[in-house]
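User: Thanks for the earlier help. One more: DNA-binding PadR family transcriptional regulator. Can you show the sequence and predicted structure together?

Assistant: Of course, both are below.
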Amino acid sequence: MSRRSGILEFAVLGLLRESPMHGYELRKRLNTSLGVFRAFSYGSLYPCLKTLVANGWLIEEPGSAPEDARAASLAGRRAKIVYRLTAEGKEHFEELLAHTGPDAWEDEHFAARFAFFGQTSRDVRMRVLEGRRSRLEERLEKMRASLARTRERLDDYTLELQRHGMESVEREVRWLNELIESERAGRYQRNGSAAPDTSGEAGGLPRHRGGSRPDPSDDTTK
């Protein structure tokens, strides 16, 4: 299984844990709620769904009442299939949520993992956030060293592009620092809502400098 298909399976299981959906609804949620999947097509989604059904993690159910299904058949249209998470699928998704290995820190996988932090335990969230921060700090150190070696050979536009990439990584590191601080302060509940604030500071997700939080997948250095 490729890394990207594994991320897609994770996201599909996570969305279906919230509620059953048919394929069109799933693709819409993947594209709108999880921007990292904007490039995925039905050609990627439906093989993924078939695999999950074959593994026993999803079941297919008719999505229309019998009379609607008959009308759709007469009109030459197929009735929509609704996909529902099984008990085994829920257990498998929870195992994936508990995973904190290095692949959970990479750009696309981290974005998908972060989207489901509301369903993730606090200790796992902390390990993923700290791992992501460590990975970006390593990347930033390499970028600075590379820029120091090549600065004199770069034209102004290439130099600005390098600086922009570094600023993007630095911005995400600051954002991660704020998230980690909030987690340590116990400002979140397991369902992702802010815990009651007793410190005089605002609870909930820290606001990113500039008014909004960055997209974790928006990394120009990849």
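User: Great, one quick takeaway?

Assistant: The chain has eight helices and three strands.
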